Amino acid sequence: MAAALLLRGLRLAASRTRPAFPAPASSTTPYVSPLLRRLYSSAAASAAASPSLGPGGALDPSRIRNVAVIAHVDHGKTTLMDRLLRQCGADIPHERAMDSISLERERGITIASKVTSISWKENELNMVDTPGHADFGGEVERVVGMVEGAVLVVDAGEGPLAQTKFVLSKALKYGLRPILLLNKVDRPSVSEETCNEVESLVFDLFANLGATETQLDFPVLYASAKEGWSSLTFTKSPPDNAKNMSTLLDSILQHVPSPKADLEAPFQMLVSMMERDFYLGRILTGRVRSGIIRVGDKVHGLRSTDDGVQKFEDGKIVKLMKKKGTSMVTVEAAGAGDIISMAGLATPAIGHTVANSDILTALPTIELDPPTISMTFGVNDSPLAGRNGTHLTGAKIGNRLMAEAETNLAINVLPGPLSESYEVQGRGELQLGILIENMRREGFELSVSPPRVMYKTERGERLEPIEEVTVEVDEEHVGFVMETLTHRKGEVMDMGPVPGTTGRTRIFLTCPSRGLVGFKGIFNSFTRGTGFMHRAFQSYAKYRGQLGNVRKGVLVSVGKGLITSHALMSLEARGILFVSPGMEAYEGMIVGEHSRDSDLDINPVRTKELTNIRAPGKDENVRLSPPRLMTLEEAIGYVAADELIEVTPKVIRLRKKYLDATKRKMMKNKPMD
């Protein structure tokens, strides 16, 4: 450790006088159907600097660099990828070009890992953009084994946070030596002293995670991905001829080793990603571990089972593809060390091995952290079912969930407690909420149970998942955060002022996963959007006991029909309403939150009784407060154990598990499923 500290001190002293790398010079297909056009589009600008092919038609492994970009959420990974693509001549149609999923662009987060390649100084750089949110950590785990290096992006103003520790631990576990990139140094609050402090915090994080002396001597760069430049030394604004990403690209070539690959060995590839195409079927993506693969080669699929290696499909490669910039291009051959996509096999999935017909040895599978939360998906059986959706049956819901589990290893799908129901296990409510939102947009109707944490029992002791939580709020909101999370069994580890700010406090806590369900919405509402909260799975620990009262009771409808303003006028004093006049209600539907801890049965469809006495203008005076309309994520965090979420393409409703009031009273004292 002392030797590493000395080496880092000498290297930092030398880097202050080191000149920046010079900026390099900037560097038609036949008609196909629109769905396949992306496979044939060329990246002409990148090809100009592409490395030459070897005698077997594959790239020389010494000219390849496989790099993952890892970071905490909102620290600038995807923006950095945009700038690297532009630097290497790729045509970017819009900002956040790597976020190709519609939900990613809507929410401003990365959900799935993506691979692209850029050419730099006759070298091929395969870059992997990874998610930064804790719920999508499985995307990081399954791709970090494909690369030899990583760029750890850290916000120079915020420093390392909860997810930084998670992604860094995975990189160190696979023996990677990350390059530290301090991003957003152009902010007014960031100074050289701030960067030095953040660098020290990152070094401590490396040491606490068991990094070797080689890993502790990590290179440090400074950048502003938004402005499109990087530097070896701290600066707020480099010279105009140095406002580019050349320094980072050259550092990748210098510090990331080329893959150790044998082109003469038989072909083997571990599938790390999978997608479906209407014409090509399954498109399998992974890193070629050995050998060369060409279009037309015969291959088969292998998987490891308890009884040994099992061969399950023979096939032929019909198309080889590689992502260059933002376009997918076809190639005739690919060699060991390269990351490639192939089509031609219908059965292999993530974690399986594709190999030459002569090979009967499967590659080691991907190890993922276990899921920590589960929800039950079932058929929508409410009185309003079938009005909006097109996929209604349990069989269709099951097929869709099984397809999701094939492409996302962090999700497990098991048979549910009832017929035509399925237990879906994942990392958090955001991950499962994204799945539900995708199904809703595809035309599915379903009912969803509230999230349940997955406990463990070791040596007769009950264990539960504990998460690290980082909260940054104004000083006036510190009391609220402390009190609320204390009720949810949170324990404060550290707290203090946020560097470079006035009146802001950062709190580090540990809290059970079950205590954080639904807290995000309450937190955002109370802080009015000024607070930040990040969380990441830490470990399983001893059960911390029953939670305090985290939610009040609800207002439950006992009538069916259209909701009237006349009825709501007298119900407003009972609590907060979730509905407005004109909406449909049914018996057992939740229409509001009670002002007390108990549930209350109400009739929101009650109409005004007509008499022969005139009351001119009476109804025109009804003024109701705007209802609280919940998003899907808010609904997932709100529902209690005896409630369900009714999800349709157009409407999200809350309801009781048992719609009949009499049956609810009978089941009240019985344990829930």
Gist?
By secondary structure, the protein is an alpha+beta fold.
Structural summary, described in words:
With 673 residues, the chain is α+β, with helices and mostly antiparallel strands. 24% of the residues lie in helices and 30% in strands. The chain contains 18 helices and 35 strands. The strands form 6 sheets. Strands 18, 19, 20, 21, 22, 28, 30, 32, 33, 34 and 35 form an 11-stranded mixed β-sheet that branches. An 8-stranded antiparallel β-sheet has the order 12-11-17-8-9-16-13-14. A 7-stranded mixed β-sheet has the order 2-3-1-4-5-6-7, with helices on both faces. Strand 6 (220-224) and strand 7 form a beta hairpin. Helix 12 (429-441) crosses helix 17. The longest helix is centred in the N-terminal third of the chain and has 17 residues, at 192-208. It is globular and about 95 Å long. The two termini are 52 Å apart. 43% of the residues are buried. The model is unreliable at 14-48 (pLDDT under 50).
Task: Draw up the topology in text.
Layout: H1 2-15, H2 37-40, H3 44-47, E1 64-71, H4 77-87, H5 102-107, E2 114-120, E3 123-129, H6 137-143, E4 149-155, H7 162-173, E5 179-183, H8 192-208, H9 213-216, E6 220-224, E7 229-231, H10 246-255, E8 268-277, E9 281-290, E10 292-294, E11 298-305, E12 308-316, E13 319-324, E14 327-331, E15 333-335, E16 339-343, E17 353-356, E18 373-378, H11 394-407, E19 412-415, E20 421-426, H12 429-441, E21 446-448, E22 452-453, E23 456-458, E24 461-474, H13 478-487, E25 491-497, E26 504-512, H14 513-516, H15 519-527, E27 532-542, E28 554-557, E29 561-562, H16 565-571, E30 575-577, E31 584-585, E32 589-594, E33 600-602, H17 632-638, E34 643-647, E35 652-656, H18 661-667
Parallel strand pairs: 1-3, 1-4, 4-5, 5-6, 28-33
Antiparallel strand pairs: 2-3, 6-7, 8-9, 8-17, 9-16, 10-15, 11-12, 11-17, 13-14, 13-16, 18-20, 18-21, 18-22, 19-20, 21-34, 23-24, 24-26, 24-27, 25-26, 28-32, 29-31, 30-32, 32-35, 34-35
Helix pairs in contact: 12-17
